[in-house]
Each structure stands twice: as structure tokens, then as C-alpha cells.
Amino acid sequence: MSVDLRTKYLGLDLKNPFVASACPLTESLDNQRRLEDSGAAAIVLPSLFEEQILQEEENFVGVHEFGSDSFAEALSYFPEPEEYRIGSEEYLDRIQAAKRAISIPVIASLNGTSLGGWLRYAKLIEDAGADALELNIYFVAADVEMTGEEVEKRYLDLVQAVSSSVSIPVAVKIGPYFSSVGDISRRLVEAGAKGLVLFNRFLQPDIRLDTLDTRPHLVLSTEFELLLPMRWIAVLYGRLNASLALTSGVHSSQGAIKAVLAGADVVMLASALYKQGLGCIGAMIEQMKLWMEENDYASVEQMKGSVSHRNSPNPAAFERGNYMKALASFTGTPI
């Protein structure tokens, strides 16, 4: 039978659930065309960082030290100010060039923590033709006196301000480090987010024993990392009026199928593209089609959320009940 892979994300009609996530691979026009040819349904451009905006608007005072380990999709250490690959004005040109080069939706990305120039650039990004905007929020509450409520307020205020300043849909990419992922997700949607991207992979600082300084340490994701966002996608499915994107840990069609069954509208790929090449999307699409035919699914919409927390015959599997069962059944041999 013929299966229907179409899905909807942020109100955009996509031909399938596979989206190229924000990373340096989505920057060049050649790669954008190759991703489209491979089957990608949309691309997220590399992030425009708050540091880049501040460099132009505030002469970059003090920001070099502040953000040295702050972004998730960099493939090298934080660059010197003069080594930025593109400036904020050039970023807008990249959006326009991408829109001319490919026919699939182009999603822009802003990465930062404060309002700063975000509001102005969100509007400029919309004017440049981006189909949607992803807010890649990074904030570590290193002040031990800052409360969880204050941290969440920063997120909510930023999302509310940006969402109300543009007419294109806004998605929010967050990490899993909230005391209640469900509650902050609900409030982000109430603040104006049209979609949630779960979860960001924040770089963690490492200590170099030869120099005794700290450096960010990047490791590409593994398939094991699929499990955390998949759990929360499954919990949130059907409970929020927003699109759900799963990122981190999708390296095969099996991972993508699981994500959709849990309730994801799309899966976002980055590490898989580095490990397997840009053409891996096409292979995943064909394997997903085959699985759907073998399991009598006529469409992605039929699959979506069928094994979510709300629809699961065993919802406790997404909660604490599965913890005891997993430990009790483990038969690993000690070394």
C-alpha cells in the first residue's frame, strides 16, 4: 500500500517528519540543496547568537568570557570575535539566499538568554522571509541565590516578547533541566510558543589537566539520548496546543518511528548527518515507509501519539513504575 508521510509542524505542511536541525551543515547553499534532494522536509539554519548581536550593538563588551561554553551546535571552541563566520546582517542575507535556493521551509534560529537585540532581529528575520523562528534559549543559573521561579520567568518573558513581535510561528528549544518539564512547557505555550523542541544538548565544561583551564567538550549524540526527549514527547502529546519536535538521539529510522509513535510531529537530525552523511535522510524515509506498510499504518498522522502516555495501555512505563521494573530485571555481570 502507499503510505502518507505528511505531517504539520508550526502550522507548516511538511512532506515528511525529517528536519535538518540547526548546525553548521545547514549553512551552505550546496548542503541545503543536498538536504532537500535527500528528502529533508525543512531545515533549521545555524543559530544567530546573542553574542553576535551584542558585538554589533554593544561592541561586544565582556561577552567573550560570558558565553564560552554556551552553544550546543558549535563544532569547535568559542571563536574570537573577529572570527565569527557570519554577522547578524549577513545572517539575514543567508535566509533570503536559502529561500531562493530551496523550496522546503527555512526556519531561522536565535540563541541567547536576554531580550537585547532579539526583538529587532526577530522582526528582521521575519522580513527576510523565514518561515518560522526557533528560539534556542541557553541559560545556566550559576548564581546560587537565583530561584527556579526567576529562571523560568526569564524564559517566559523572552518567549512572550518575541512571539508577540512577529507573525511567523515561534518554536522554543529548551533543555531538560527544569523541576517540572510539563509545567514549563505548558506555560511556554501560553506565552506564545507554537512549538517545543525537546531537548537541547548543552555543552558541559571540562577541565584540562595540562593547563588547568576549562574548555567546552563536544560529543555527538548517541541513540541512547533518544530516550529522554521521547519520554517527554509522550507525556506532552495531546496535552498542549503546540507542535512537538524531538531532537537528540535520532540516528535511524527506528528512532524516528519511535519518536512519532510517542507523539512527535517531526524529528530533527544533526549528529546523524555528521556520522552518516547528508544522504542518510533518504534511507531513513524509505525504511520508515517499509515499516509502516509492514505494520498497517497508512499515514504518519495515524501513527502519531499512538504509543504516547495518554494512549498507552501502560502509562506507568513512562513514569516511576518502569524504574523499579528495569532495575529488578537487570542481569548485567559485574566486572
Question: Which tags fit this structure?
Answer:
TIM Barrel, 13 strands, alpha/beta, 16% strand, 335 residues, 13 helices, two-stranded antiparallel sheet
Strand arrangement, major sheet: 3-4-6-7-8-9-12-13
**Could you tell me the number of beta strands?**
13
What class would the helix/strand composition place it in? alpha/beta
Taking all Cα atoms into account, the compactness measure Rg is 20 Å
**Most strands sheet:** 8 strands, parallel, barrel
pLDDT < 50 stretches:
60-85
Outline: globular
Q: What sequence of helices (H) and strands (E) makes up the elements?
A: EEEHEEHHHEHEHEHEEEHEHEHHHH
CATH topology title: TIM Barrel
- Write the CATH architecture name: Alpha-Beta Barrel
Tally the structural domains.
Answer: 1
| Percent of residues in beta strands | 15-25%
N-to-C terminal Cα separation, in Å?
50 Å
CATH superfamily: Aldolase class I
Task: Briefly summarize what is shown.
The protein has 335 residues and is of the alpha/beta class. The chain is built from 13 helices and 13 strands. The model is unreliable at 60-85 (pLDDT under 50).
Topology:
Elements: E1 7-9, E2 12-14, E3 18-20, H1 29-38, E4 42-44, E5 48-49, H2 50-57, H3 63-66, H4 88-101, E6 106-112, H5 118-128, E7 132-137, H6 148-165, E8 170-174, H7 181-190, E9 195-198, E10 204-207, E11 214-217, H8 227-236, E12 243-247, H9 253-262, E13 266-269, H10 271-276, H11 280-294, H12 300-303, H13 321-329
Parallel strand pairs: 3-4, 3-13, 4-6, 5-6, 6-7, 7-8, 8-9, 9-12, 12-13
Antiparallel strand pairs: 1-2, 10-11
Helix pairs in contact: 4-5, 8-9, 9-11
